[in-house]
């Protein structure tokens, strides 16, 4: 029996109460997407996937599979705490009894679907202004009354849609890109404040850069949740076209003389 299931934005906890407190069991979790991609809906498939993973880990730790399974198992009531998860994502938490020697599943695998919470979504619109001087563009982003961190990025428009598909919704991809980048930094063990300082802006931001001539770019900005570090608003999206390269009427007359062999 699974009790006191408490999902947060990037974590959840589950209290496990086995029917037989003397029988060892192992618990694990995976995203529902992972279960679907690897076709692990059937207990036999999931259990074999578990054995394959634990066999590799046992070898890496210089021990046998039965001994490693013993180390990973529990008996009696136990509260599992899982962290470094992705917000607003379907996870599957599962438990099973097993025989270490025979490496056999005892009974069925108990599964529980858990949806992690989503950061509060704020109503934030970013004002973007552009000053185009040929291929030089000065862009200014003003978050208005929003005084917390936000993510800002731009792309060559053609490259963006060639990569993500011509039906891609920029605002959705913008949040997805930031969430994946933040999640990777979290997995690397980087401190939340360092991630915000290194990858986000706060307050009015202005920069001047060179762009490709006669090329359209897409800019987007979205609010970032200080606690989970994930996207906390819909992205504001703007398009801008860089100007042409300035040409000159200057004619250079090159004369070559006094060539000696």
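^ structure tokens above, recovered residues below v
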């Amino acid at each position: 029996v699974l009790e006191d299931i408490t999902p947060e934005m990037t974590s959840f906890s589950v209290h496990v109460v086995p029917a037989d407190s003397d029988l060892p069991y192992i618990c694990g979790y995976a995203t529902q997407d992972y279960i679907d991609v690897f076709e692990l809906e059937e207990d036999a498939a999931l259990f074999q996937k578990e054995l394959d993973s634990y066999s590799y880990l046992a070898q890496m730790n210089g021990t046998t599979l039965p001994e490693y399974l013993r180390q990973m198992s529990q008996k009696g009531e136990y509260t599992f705490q899982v962290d470094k998860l992705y917000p607003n994502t379907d996870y599957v938490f599962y438990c099973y009894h097993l025989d270490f020697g025979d490496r056999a599943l005892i009974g069925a695998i108990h599964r529980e679907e858990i949806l992690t919470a989503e950061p509060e979504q704020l109503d934030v619109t970013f004002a973007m202004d552009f000053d185009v001087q040929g291929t030089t563009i000065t862009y200014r982003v003003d978050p208005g009354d929003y005084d917390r961190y936000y993510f800002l990025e731009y792309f060559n428009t053609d490259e963006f849609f060639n990569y993500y598909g011509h039906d891609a919704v920029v605002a959705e991809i913008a949040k997805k890109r930031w969430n994946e980048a933040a999640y990777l930094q979290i997995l690397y063990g980087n401190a939340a404040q360092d991630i915000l300082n290194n990858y986000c802006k706060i307050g009015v931001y202005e920069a001047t850069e060179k762009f490709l001539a006669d090329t359209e770019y897409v800019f987007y900005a979205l609010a970032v949740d200080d606690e989970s570090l994930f996207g906390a608003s819909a992205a504001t999206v703007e398009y801008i076209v860089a100007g042409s390269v300035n040409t000159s009427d200057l004619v250079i007359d090159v004369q070559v003389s006094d060539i000696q062999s």
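The first helix runs from residue 32 to 37.
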